Amino acid sequence: MPLLALPAADLASLNASVGELIFLGISAFLIGIFAGMIGVALGFIRLPILLAFGFNPAVAAGTNLGVSILGGATASWPHWRGGRVVMRVLLVVGIPAVIGSFLGGLFANDVKAWILLALIAIILGISGLVTYRQWWIVAHSPLRPIRHRPPTPSDDPTGVSNLRPGRIAADSGIGIVIGLIGGAAGLVLGSLRLPFLLNVLRMDARYAAGTNNAIGVLAGTFGFVGHALNSNFDIPVMAVMGASGMVGSYIGATQTGKVNPALMRLVIAVMLTAATPIVIIRAVIEFPN
Fold it and tell me: Which of 76, 84, 111, 135 is the most interior residue, by most CB within 10 Å?
């Protein structure tokens, strides 16, 4: 049945049972630990779980963004306190993402879901391959001979030195495109921004995680507002998953600075790889709706 043909009551609730709420709460807690650790909301994992229960796609998308906001906001404090949020990068990439996310959420019902999901799957696959390559380089760098050379912009762990004036427009453009896609699909899409921060701006994995988390909170908030204007969210599910996800995200965020950078890149690459087939399957299921 087409989404627009669903009764209004179905759009206003996911109608989750008590057992489903308990399962969703436990899942959100476990996912939150990894999300807080690597600075990615991991909505790619939560959203398929919601959809697997047969919940309405539009409401599941808005609810998933709400959970991402709560978990991400909780993880932001340890990242901020640890000095892992880079404000210049946050402004250049985050503001366009906020604009795109709001517009994506507001007009989500006007875009075919399978088109968005197919595009996300392609970008995820490419990002995963690039991140695996970066992990390999970082993991095996101690085996290479040490050469003394003057510092270069790529040596700046915050990535600020790589925000060149001539490229700011392109960097902002990437932010708004990712925001549009994520806002419409109900995803923060930190998994797409993180490889950009790591591989283009050459940020240290810990700074990238903290900054990406902060951008995700801002983008997710405005994307959720766009969905909320269409009543695409469920309060009970969002409350349960949000509360348990907040606890898990805080625990994970406190461990970010203690994890080896090479290991963090590997975890990110594995998450990207795991999310890709999930999105592909969902795109096939949605086609041609």
Answer: 84
